[in-house]
Each structure stands twice: as C-alpha cells, then as structure tokens.
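Q: What would this complex look like in 3D?
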Amino acid sequence: VGVGDDAAVVRHDGRDVVVTTDVLVDGVHFVLRTCGGVAAARKAVAVNVSDLAATGARPRGCVAGVVLPQGTPFRLFDALARGFARAGRDFACPVVGGDTNVGPGPLVLSVAAFGDVGPRGPVLRSGARPGHVLSVTGRLGGSILGRHLSFRPRVAEGFVLGETGVARAMMDLSDGLAADLPRLCRASGVGARLFADRVPVHRDARRARGGKSPLERALSDGEDFELLVAHRRLSKAMRRTLARRGVVLHDVGEVVEGAGVTIVEDGRERVLRSRGYDHLRRARGRR
Amino acid sequence: VGVGDDAAVVRHDGRDVVVTTDVLVDGVHFVLRTCGGVAAARKAVAVNVSDLAATGARPRGCVAGVVLPQGTPFRLFDALARGFARAGRDFACPVVGGDTNVGPGPLVLSVAAFGDVGPRGPVLRSGARPGHVLSVTGRLGGSILGRHLSFRPRVAEGFVLGETGVARAMMDLSDGLAADLPRLCRASGVGARLFADRVPVHRDARRARGGKSPLERALSDGEDFELLVAHRRLSKAMRRTLARRGVVLHDVGEVVEGAGVTIVEDGRERVLRSRGYDHLRRARGRR
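A: Here is my prediction, written as structure tokens for the whole assembly.
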C-alpha cells in the first residue's frame, strides 16, 4: 500500500506482513531527563505497536535501533534494554534484534515492528465512504500529562475492528484528531463533519495548563494513540458484540462527500483547522 | 535466534522471516557534507541488505526512519528520498514505508530490512566447527577511500552459500576481520587461526594514508561488507559450481578447537588483537 498509511503491507509467502517504523528523539517525543530510559524505550515500542493496531494487525515482533549520546552512562543503556524488554512482553511484541551506536546528538530510539492480519487483510486509511460514521476508541486531549508515555496501544480493539469487518478505514491518532482526520479523508477522497459535543474529552484535557480549551486540546494535543475508525452505522447486535470483545466506540462525526473537515459547534458549522502537532511542518517549511 | 547475530529470524506462518536493523549517524557512519544525501541513504539501505546477505536471505523490503537536523533544507529531504528509492531498486529491497522527524542533533538514518531464506533456513554465526575453512568473499581494507559508501552487498553470494549448504556459519565484515572473526568464534564456541599471507588485501588498503600497514588495514579498517564464511573444505566440483554462480572464496584461515584467534605471519603464530572499529566500546566503556 502506498506511503502515507500508518504501516506498509508486504506479501510474504502468500500472507500479508504489516511493517511499520517510528523514530523517537529525546527532546521531541520524550524528555529523557524526566521520564528515564525505561519509559522512553517503552514509548518507542508502543507507538509502533499502535501503528500496527491501526491496520488491524497483531504484533509479532520488532527490532530496535539506538543512538546513544557520547558519554552515555551504562545505566542508561541498561534502562533502555529493560524498557524494550518490558514493552515487548507487555505488548506481545518482542524485541528480536537491534543495533546500538554512539552519536554526537541526543538519544534516538528507532523501532520497526511487524505483525500479521486476519484473512480480511489490513484496514487502510482509504476505505472511508460518504455515510460512514466516524468513531474513536477513547477520550482525547491532555496526553502530555503522562498518557503519551503510559498509553496502551489499542491492539485488541484494532484486531476486532478489522476481523469483524466493521472498520472500513482506520488510523491511530498521533497528531490529534484535527490533523489526523484530514489525512484519513484525503486518503479516502472524502470529507468529514465532526460534532463538537460528541468529541470525548479526556479529563487530562481539562487539567492541562495553557491557552487551549478542553475541546481544542482534545482536537489538537495529539499523542492520544486512540484509533479513529470509519464504519457503517452499527446495529445494536454488532455494538453488543463489540462491547463483549472490549471495544467501545465513541461516535464523533460522519463521512461526507467532497473534501475538507468541518466541525458543528453550538449549531454552527465551520471549517476545522489542523492544529495538531505536525513533526514535518517545520522540516519541510511548507504544506 | 539470539541477540548477536546480524539479523533476527522470526517464524511467520510457518516460514522464516529474517529481520535486521542498522542506524547510521552523520559524522559517525558517513559525512553528509562530503557524501550528500543520496549516498548516505544508499549506505543506510546497503548495510541492512548486507546483514540479510550474511544469513543467506534475499531482501524483500525495508522501512526507513529519518531524523532531520533542525533547519534542514528541502533539497536534503529530497536527496534522501532519491537515495532510498535508488537503493531499493539497486538491491531489490524497496523502501515500503518510513517515518520522518526533526531533532536537535545530526542526521540519523534508521533502516529495518526483512527478507526470506530458502528451505535450509538462515545461516547463523554459531555453526563453525573445528576443521572448517574460513573464507571471505572479497578483498579487505581501505574502504574509507569510498567503498564504505559504494559497496554492493553480497546478496547473491550469501544466498548461494546458504542454498547450497556450503556456509556453516556466516557474517558480514562491518568492523574488520580482527574484530568480527572473534565474534563468530564466540558464537560458535571455537577458536580460529588466520594466515597473514592469505588475507586478500584491497588496493585501497595500500593507498590509504595513516600509520597502519596494508595488512593491518585489511584486518581492522572495517566496513568491508564482505562475507566471512566457515565451511568444509571445498571439493573442486563445488568450487566450480560456486564460481559458475559468481561466488569466489578467498581462504584466509581455519577453525580450531578452543577459543581465541591467532594469526600466522612469517612462520610465527601470535594472538590477534581486535583492532577493528567497535561502535559500542566507547559507549559502554568496557568489554
């Protein structure tokens, strides 16, 4: 599948292997001084596992590359190793290999994970169609208070949503709904309408400080790592089936014809600006 | 297979998938200012493909993670993309996905590649036995003059050596024969004896400047990315078969009982010190 999805899909001996990679940098994706090596390594695995979950894949394993700053004490090396091992166990995604180097910059953790999907194949971003409902798997916003490190990737949910055929398009929310939903829409060639009063706001979005409202935080903080799902309207029976398998969906909007994302708030519909965090925007200087 | 081999082997739907990762840092593994983004990206893919070759695997694809320095011009981003695409084509190892970030340090290129092996399974480092011959697939030393960027991974050779069952243990020479051979020996629980007059010295090892002799360069410069192979003594027929399939082996020594590596030079046998480049030595501060 083309570049732009959360993961790539490769046919291997007649079966699909889903592969993904994410690179985390100290000072950008975590602050080593405050979170420590164990949490940093855990996050490096977790964000990759979340990418697998977004395709409905179950993780099989990962490899981890590390660039240590010069003069790194052995205890950091050791903490990273423990963090990788723990995350591998917690997420059933063992670190099967790696590479360690020393460089002149900050700590860099690079993980590539692979997984497999059921017979329906992977769920892509491109399957959303007008009339679909848009849902998320949990509450959004304020992840900076800690959830961006401690979140649990929605692997079980992603797998159920893929296996049952419920998810027609799916991605994980890494940059915030306001930034990520337009990507899903572009991949599917559709537009979307959100309803402000349905967006599930996390209590951390109310606690976090700064100039943003809780709703703005829920839309644009990012690093929620919940799944965004486009699906047909669910029957009561299917909703019960999903609930029994641990999947709760919060409907937040609908897929519409055309392009662009709007949000309905207090009865008024306006264009939703992408205020999510975009790691690339500064590098490319355009978009 | 355990940590320490060039690649990990994961059973996927009953078939072996070989997975490897290598992280390259500007100023350590390449000098971006002089080599440019295309060559840097090519090397990042090539070193991973070489790790696959060392197990006898054929590459199937890779994912690439990039950490761009702050303020990176778009033309570097573009050069990296072209380098990744070109390497993917040249080595039949397409870049199927990736992740791009911006960080405060130097350029970091992280690639994870995967491949498959024939029915005999992967060749590991641990299969060397006393009596085996030790060979390399090409001339060594002086790679700093350019080969460390332009080398062609020994994929075809590795696959033939694996498929024919010739290779009982194999690895690629990234840190130099003097550093890498002891690793193969430790993995196999054996010792080894090299013969100085048989080590194939590359002409670049004679041209490169510095205090080392050509033989020292051949033993310790590193980044040769030739394969080191332990195998039974070859019959003339097998040697012809290999030659017909493009595999030329230079015998450099033999596997012996015990531990440690010695080198025979001018009729005298001495312990070979590991003067190869070890990226980890400085980080760990021990070994």
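A: To summarize the key features: Residues 277-287 of chain B have pLDDT under 50 and may be disordered. Chain B is about 30% helix and 30% strand.
Q: Very helpful, thank you.
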